[in-house]
């Protein structure tokens, strides 16, 4: 009997082709995310489920699928949507998609950094509003990056790729993280590890690249924002709940930090309305990995993980 593979939302055809070699593929083609009840219904009888970052994967979902379930392949590097212990203790393999989205996410981070420090979105809004303007020396001044300090929270693959790009812009790099980076990485990036508190006090731009965990939820809260310089910017391309959005909106409104650029939101896809009224905020809709090449590579990696597990082989990028 063919193994049943359920994909919770449309994925690039290249990934479907890989999955077809491994079993009978059912792709859910609805417009939005499946509700928890729809998700439970969709996975019934599945041997493999390919999930998106908005799908909640927990004990209940695994039970709904049934005892034949072998693998859940999340098409994302982050897996905060998966209750990993609950899934793995039921004998189901969990995989994610590290590595393949590092460059795209780092590129987007630099894009956001430039947008917020050079007021690009604000300038665009001005022109689109057909407002009058003329060039003058004091017009719409932003903040330069050369000689400024970038504070990276979480020096994993993406954090390192951001650091490399920032160095090319003439920035100094400091970082904070659970572990000291390897000496050669620190040497290449000229990066110094600091306690979070000190990083917040010294960085001109704070960029978040940590996973969302119980330890990092609201890591950037009112106190953290108060520790930042009034001239500093916050960039978040990690996960929304790492930042207390209400506290951020308040800090931005009161000019306690200079600006923020956000790719992710606390209650995604909802955006804290208070943020949308502020000119010193740049918001984009979770586009970190959104290139044709990267999304294809992510979906293909997830599909190859499924194929490996269903063939009785080791998964390529398991989460443990
Ligand atoms: C995207 O946000 C991812 O975790 O891959
Ligand atoms: C993220 O940091 C990765 O290694 O993909």
- The CATH level-2 architecture of the largest domain is identified as 3-Layer(aba) Sandwich
In the predicted model, the low-confidence regions spanning at least 5 consecutive residues are none
SSE series:
EHEHEHEHEHHEHEHEHEHEHEHEHE
The best one-word shape is globular
Protein name: Lactate dehydrogenase-like 2-hydroxyacid dehydrogenase
Organism: Saccharopolyspora hordei
Keywords: NAD, Oxidoreductase
Domain D-isomer specific 2-hydroxyacid dehydrogenase NAD-binding: 110-288
Question: What would you say this structure looks like, in words?
Answer:
The chain is an alpha/beta fold. The chain folds into 2 domains: 114 residues, Rossmann fold (3-Layer(aba) Sandwich), CATH 3.40.50; 182 residues, Rossmann fold (3-Layer(aba) Sandwich), CATH 3.40.50. It contains 13 helices and 13 strands. The strands form 2 sheets. A 7-stranded parallel β-sheet has the order 8-7-6-9-10-11-12, with helices on both faces. The radius of gyration is 21 Å and the shape is globular. It starts with a strand and ends with a strand. The protein binds glyoxylic acid (2 copies).
């Amino acid at each position: 009997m063919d193994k049943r593979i359920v994909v919770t939302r449309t994925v690039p055809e290249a990934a479907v082709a890989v999955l077809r070699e491994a079993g009978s593929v059912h792709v859910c083609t609805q417009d939005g995310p499946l509700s928890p009840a729809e998700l439970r219904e969709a996975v019934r009888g599945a041997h493999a489920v390919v999930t998106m970052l908005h799908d909640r994967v927990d004990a209940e979902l695994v039970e709904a699928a049934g005892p034949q379930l072998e693998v859940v392949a999340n098409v994302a590097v982050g897996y905060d949507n998966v209750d990993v212990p609950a899934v793995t203790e039921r004998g189901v393999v969990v995989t994610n998609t590290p590595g393949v989205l590092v460059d795209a996410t780092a590129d987007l981070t630099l894009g956001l950094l430039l947008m917020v420090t050079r007021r690009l979105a604000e300038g665009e809004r001005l022109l689109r509003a057909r407002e009058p303007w003329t060039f003058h020396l004091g017009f719409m001044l932003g903040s330069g990056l050369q000689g400024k300090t970038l504070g990276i929270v979480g020096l994993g693959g993406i954090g390192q790729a951001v650091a490399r790009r920032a160095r090319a812009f003439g920035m100094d790099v400091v970082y904070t993280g659970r572990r000291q980076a390897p000496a050669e990485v620190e040497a290449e990036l000229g990066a110094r590890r600091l306690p979070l508190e000190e990083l917040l006090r010294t960085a001109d731009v704070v960029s978040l690249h940590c996973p969302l965990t119980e330890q990092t939820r609201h890591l950037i809260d009112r106190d953290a924002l108060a520790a930042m310089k009034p001239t500093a910017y916050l960039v978040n391309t990690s996960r929304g709940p790492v930042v207390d959005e209400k506290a951020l909106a308040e800090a931005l409104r009161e000019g306690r930090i200079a600006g923020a650029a956000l790719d992710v939101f606390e209650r995604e896809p909802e955006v804290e309305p208070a943020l949308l009224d502020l000119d010193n905020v740049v918001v984009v809709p979770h586009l970190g990995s959104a290139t044709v090449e990267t999304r294809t590579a992510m979906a293909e990696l997830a599909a190859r993980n499924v194929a490996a597990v269903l063939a009785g082989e080791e998964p390529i990028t398991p989460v443990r």
